């Protein structure tokens, strides 16, 4: 009996040891997984300062570095749809990215979206585009929605432009960003005196809270948001310089924390 009991303890410990969450690696940039049609799963990171997309293998070894053309006085805002045979059909690696500029005199932002191959060949440029969404419509093919904003107007306008893509969307990783309620990318980031945080409330919810915390998890500020707007402007000049986290909570939904750097 003692021997059998000892074996049970060993089996329990072995199983417990193999059920632990294991730390793999840490990066200094925001990143995400993608599944490439030919090259398999990769991790892509956004280097805002140097305007680069860094792509790593799943064992965290560097696979490729893609230079992104960002004009002077503009800043990288987002990278999405790092893919093969989505924007092209020649097996080349391609991606979409968005950058922005800020008009300090008139207090508004201007966005631009580009789709390029890894060698820099431009496939599409969409002035004013802040968000790109790719949707697989089955027999109708793969479509792309581009939301174009003109923030120079007092009551800013938005247009939706539709495109047909030559390739297909690989299932399992890329999701429709409209439904990715956790995507709350503040701009500018790093921030000076103010920062804008866009948000989308879950379906059926009419109010939520954006919470800013320090790195120790202590709440610094709470902001109530509703469906009357899709972003909130916060006065970051009141905060000591450093790194903060922020997230949206609405009903039963809580977004993933995003990083905000205050200069």
Structure, explained:
This protein is mainly β and 263 residues long. It folds into 2 domains: 136 residues, Lipocalin, CATH 2.40.128; 68 residues, Immunoglobulins (Immunoglobulin-like, Sandwich). It is built from 1 helix and 18 strands. It is globular, with a radius of gyration of 21 Å. The termini are far apart. About 3% of the residues have low confidence.
Quick summary of this structure?
The protein has 263 residues and is mainly beta.
Structural class: mainly beta
Give the terminus-to-terminus CA distance: 66 Å
Number of strands: 18
Radius of gyration: 21 Å
Q: Ranges with pLDDT <50 over ≥5 residues?
A: 174-182
CATH topology of the largest domain: Lipocalin
Can you give the mean pLDDT?
85
Using the coordinates above, name the CATH class of the largest domain. Answer: Mainly Beta
Overall number of structural domains: 2
The coarse silhouette is: globular
Biggest β-sheet description: 5 strands, antiparallel
Following the backbone from N to C, one meets helices and strands in this order, namely HEEEEEEEEEEEEEEEEEE
Question: Strands, helices and their partners?
Answer:
Elements: H1 2-17, E1 30-36, E2 40-47, E3 52-56, E4 62-67, E5 75-84, E6 93-103, E7 108-117, E8 122-127, E9 129-136, E10 142-150, E11 157-165, E12 195-198, E13 207-213, E14 219-226, E15 231-234, E16 242-250, E17 253-254, E18 258-262
Antiparallel strand pairs: 1-2, 2-3, 3-4, 5-6, 6-7, 7-8, 9-10, 10-11, 12-15, 13-14, 13-16, 16-17, 16-18
């Amino acid at each position: 009996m003692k021997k059998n009991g000892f074996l049970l303890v060993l089996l329990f410990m072995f199983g417990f040891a193999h059920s632990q969450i294991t730390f793999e690696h840490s990066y200094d940039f925001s990143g995400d997984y993608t599944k490439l049609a030919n090259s398999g799963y990769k991790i892509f990171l956004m280097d805002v300062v140097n305007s680069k997309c860094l792509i790593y293998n799943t064992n965290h070894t560097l696979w490729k570095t893609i230079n992104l053309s960002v004009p002077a006085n503009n800043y990288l805002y987002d990278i999405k749809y790092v893919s093969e045979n989505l924007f092209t059909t020649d097996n080349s690696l391609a991606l979409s990215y968005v950058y922005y500029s800020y008009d300090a005199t008139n207090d508004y932002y201007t966005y631009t979206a580009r789709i390029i191959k890894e060698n820099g060949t431009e496939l599409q440029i969409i002035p004013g585009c802040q968000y790109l969404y790719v949707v697989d419509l089955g027999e109708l093919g793969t479509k792309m929605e581009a939301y174009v904003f003109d923030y120079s107007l007092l009551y800013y306008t938005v247009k939706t432009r539709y495109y047909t893509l030559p390739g297909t969307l690989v299932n399992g990783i890329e999701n429709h960003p409209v439904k990715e309620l956790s995507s709350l990318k503040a701009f500018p980031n790093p921030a000076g005196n103010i920062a804008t945080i866009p948000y989308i409330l879950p379906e059926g919810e009419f109010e939520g809270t954006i919470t800013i915390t320090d790195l120790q998890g202590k709440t610094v500020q709470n902001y109530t948001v509703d469906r009357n707007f899709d972003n909130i402007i916060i006065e970051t000049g009141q905060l000591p310089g450093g790194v903060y986290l922020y997230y949206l909570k609405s009903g039963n939904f809580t977004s993933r924390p995003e990083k905000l750097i205050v200069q």
